[in-house]
Amino acid sequence: MTNMNDLVIMRDQQALTTSLKVAEKFKKAHKNVLQSIKNLTAENSAVKNMFAESTYVNGRGQAQPMCYMNRDGFTLLVMGFTGKDAIKFKLEYITAFNDMEKLIRTKQQANYLPQTPEEKLALTMQVTNRLDKRVSKIEKTVADIKEKAQVDEGQRYQLLQARKSKVISACGGAKSNYYIEKKAKKVFSEFGRDFKNEFEIPRYDCLKAKDFNEAMKFTKNWYPSFVLQREIQNINAQTRLDFEDRG
Question: 148, 168, 183 — which closes off a domain?
């Protein structure tokens, strides 16, 4: 369960996070995160106010560089981050920023900010409880998306190539007379019917991404019906005999 203090902190009445926290959560080398920040500020001076250089003390007692960043700086930095958990972490950070900024605004309006460690802890626990509920909803939403997601273009291409390869093989090869005489459409048709029945879909592009590996396995192990196999064998054999007779 994610604690908000692991993501966003309050500093000088601002909701901030650090390059160290970003590196840890997104499994990046800290020096690479710092380099990305350096590249961003070098490309556009307008983003410099989103980051603030600072230092921290490592395990050896040495001062090392780090950066604070506000929500805009964080969003700009991680916009291109990809990976299995990237979207989840981005959503967690955004939620944490929102909660912390809301807390700051509320206390500013009341002309009061937590001063003692006990007050800070109590307020943090309140926000953490709300954050935990939101994260649970986000995780459920992500799980639902994964469950319902359909194959992407790359997976669809792999399926079509696997289907074509299987049909050609079932016809006896690309040089077989059954394939050359353009009868392969019967094999394509039978494969398509069996494939759609197997995965209970109306079209190939309706296949769910979670079924992709099973679909590739099905394609690899599929064979035409006995009747169609006999037809293929007879046409290929008859044609070879005719060729031999002409020789």
Answer: 148
| Nearest Cα to Cα of residue 3 among 101, 109, 95 | 95
Residues 2-38 have pLDDT tens digits of 444 467 777 767 778 899 998 888 888 999 999 999 9
Q: Do residues 180 and 216 share a domain? A: yes
Contacts 24+ apart (CB under 8 A), 233-236: 235/177, 235/178, 235/181, 235/183, 236/172, 236/176, 236/177, 236/178
Number of domains in the chain: 2
| Residue at which a domain ends, from 102, 127, 148 | 148
Among candidate residues 123, 95, 96, 128, the one with its CA nearest the CA of residue 107 = 123
Q: Which residues are CB-neighbours of 7 under 8 A, at least 6 positions away?
A: 17, 21, 25, 92, 93, 96
Is the same domain home to 42 and 144? Answer: yes
Residue numbers of the domain that contains 180:
153-246
Q: Are residues 76 and 136 in the same domain?
A: yes
Q: How open is the CA angle 130-136-141, to the nearest 5 degrees? A: 130
For the stretch 122-167, pLDDT in tens is: 566 666 667 667 766 666 665 565 566 677 888 889 999 999 999 9
